[in-house]
Amino acid sequence: MVDRFFADPALAAWYDVLSPTDERTDFGFYLPHIMSAPSVLDIGCGTGSLLRLAREAGHQGRLRGLDPAVGMLEQARRRPDLDVEWILGDLESTSWEREFDFAVMTGHAFQELLGDDELRASLAAVRAALTDNGRFGFETRNPLARAWESWTTDGPVDVPVPGADRSATLLMERQVHSVDGDIVSFRTTLDIPGERAPRHSDSTLRFLGADRLDTFLTEAGLVVEERYGDWDRGPLTDASPEIITIARRTPA
C-alpha cells in the first residue's frame, strides 16, 4: 500500500521526516474511530505511527498493522513495548473473518489500488475482516480538484530534518509524467544527506470520483455511513480536496 520506494530500510527511516505525525490531520480525524473500536486493522500501516499514537492515547484493545514493505515494518517494530501486531503482506494475502471493528487506510494508500480487479479483491478482503457492525475508514483525493496539476516542482524543495543542522536538509523534487483517465503517474526524487546520488521513486495513483467509488463499495457489501470533503468534516463539493469515507459492512 505504501510507496514501494520506502521498502528499503535505509529509506523507510525518512518517511516520518517527510510526513511528521504531528502534522498529520488525517490522524486527528481517524483517531476517535480507532479509540472507540475494540479491535483495529491499519491497512498500509507504514511506520506504524497511527497505531502507536492510539496505544499511547490509551487504547486497550487489539491493534494490528498490515504493510507489504519490510523497511516500513522495521520502523514500526521499534516500540515492542506498545503491544501492536505488525504483519508483512497486503490485503489479497489475508484471510481474516470478522476480526476487526474498524479498518483504516491512511496516507491515500487506497489510491494505489489501480485495477478494478485489485480494488474489488481488496474491498472484499476488508469486508470479510470486519465484524458484523464493523466500519472501514479511508480517503482518496477528489479528482475534480485536480491536485496533480500542482505536484510538479520547479526545482528541488528543501525538507528540513528535525534535530539536524542545515547541512542535513533533504531535497525533494517531483515530476508528473502522465495523466490517463483516472490514472496519474509521477516521479519523486530524493537527495538524501550523506548519499552520493539521488534516489528515484516512480508512482502511480488512481483518482476515483465519488459515484464510481460508491459503486465498488456497494458491490463489496459496504455502505457509506459518513462522507466528507476535508479533514474538518466539511461537506463534499466539487472543490473539496478529499473524498473521506466511513463505510459500514452490510449484512450478507
Question: How would you name the CATH homologous superfamily of the largest domain?
Answer: Vaccinia Virus protein VP39
Percentage of helical residues? 10-25%
SSE-based structural type: alpha/beta
Count of spatially separate domains: 2
Report strand %: 25-35%
Q: What is the CATH class of the largest domain?
A: Alpha Beta
Mean pLDDT: 91
Spatial order of the strands forming the largest sheet: 3-2-1-4-5-11-10
Q: What is the number of helical segments per DSSP (H or I, 4+ residues)?
A: 7
Subunit organisation of the chains: single chain
Radius of gyration: 18 Å
Give the uncertain stretches in residue-range form.
Answer: none
Please outline the major beta sheet. 7 strands, mixed
| Cα shape | globular
Number of strands: 11
CATH architectural group of the largest domain? 3-Layer(aba) Sandwich
Distance between the termini: 27 Å
What is the H/E string? Answer: HHHEHEHEEHEEEEEHEE
CATH topology of the largest domain: Rossmann fold
